[in-house]
Amino acid sequence: MTRITSGSPAPSPTVVIAPDAFKGTATAQQAAQWLGDGVRSVIHDANVILAPMADGGEGTSSLFAGERITLPTTDAAGRLTEATYTFDAETETAYIDVAAATGLPAVKDHLVPLTGDTYGTGVLVADAETRGARRIVLGLGGSATIDGGTGILVALGVNPLNSRGLTLAPGGGALVDLADFDTAKMNIPAASVDWILLADALVPATGPRGAASIFGPQKGASEADVDALDRSLARLCEVTGVDGAQPGYGAAGGIAIGLTWVSTLLHGTSEHVTVLPGAKVVAEANDVPGKIAGASLVITGEGRFDSQTAEGKVVSTICDIAARAARDTDSSPVVAVVAGSFEAPVPSPDADHPVIAVTLEDIHDVQEQLTRAGAAAAADYLRISTTQG
């Protein structure tokens, strides 16, 4: 986190607003706009720069340039739905959010921790390849599944088998019986693309900090389900020979495991799969570090600030960028974090220089919530700057 230095605020302070989406209520673009409206209501001459963010979860693909493609597919429960991704023909790159087809909100009424799969995401991948995509940038946040990416493999013609040679049922729960894969009908062009996997949390696939243990409960997994899914992912790693202990291999229910295996099978090396922290990639693609370097106030936020925030989420990434700006430049931006709830303490440089924490007011209108939060952050910034001056 960044330190607040003494001195009066500039007459026209630059305010960078870089929130994540507030899931289910506001997109990152909406959140940035409404927080900015709140800032301007308090600091009328503020130079407000909107920099909506994502960490690989919902809304990531929309932050990249290209044509928006919408097509029918299936959700994590196998029900028909529509999903949208971004295709940049010039760079032959498709930007796909796992959450678009395989996201948790779509199955809130019918959670599927053991049987949900990523087949619907694989449909998007296959479609992108037919349009000319040679690189898939896959945002791994917000999934409803823990299937190790096997649903994507099935969509690409690769079927998981048990020891009797029978195709396994969909979902991570069945993977404990995995023995082999049938690749006879593999969609080789789609499976052989370059994969850039944007992890929203750099957790391993298995163990106490793995996909099932950390994310299983929010996907509907009971304690027994978590244990079963952890064993299933361990079995997938055993059969594929993929090291699930690598950072980010637990994101989106272990998708990197299946994709690393099939890519290595086709290319003879895992070099065509890269797992990166999603928020950092999005920030760099949109020059957020450059914008923050000249800022007086930086506002970020997410729906819930909790123990997972530090695993590479947007808020922790923006705070790290602001801290680097304080170290590397003459500026020292004040940081404000907006959240619907704070379930973990917000780290501060020291007791005298706390980061501003703004909790959304309990009102129904989301736009009004975020506008008031932006105003509160701006007012706190002015108060701190005046006190320090």
UniProtKB/TrEMBL annotation:
GO terms for molecular function: glycerate kinase activity. InterPro entries: Glyc_kinase_flavodox-like_fold, Glycerate_kinase, Glycerate_kinase_RE-like, Glycerate_kinase_sf. Gene3D superfamilies: Glycerate kinase, domain 1 (3.40.50.10350), Glycerate kinase, domain 2 (3.90.1510.10). It comes from the Bacteria. GO terms for biological process: organic acid phosphorylation. It holds the Pfam family Gly_kinase. The keyword Zinc does not apply. The keyword Kinase applies. Keywords: Kinase, Transferase. Belongs to the glycerate kinase type-1 family. PANTHER family: GLYCERATE KINASE. This is Glycerate kinase. It comes from Corynebacterium mycetoides. The lineage of its organism: Bacteria, Bacillati, Actinomycetota, Actinomycetes, Mycobacteriales.
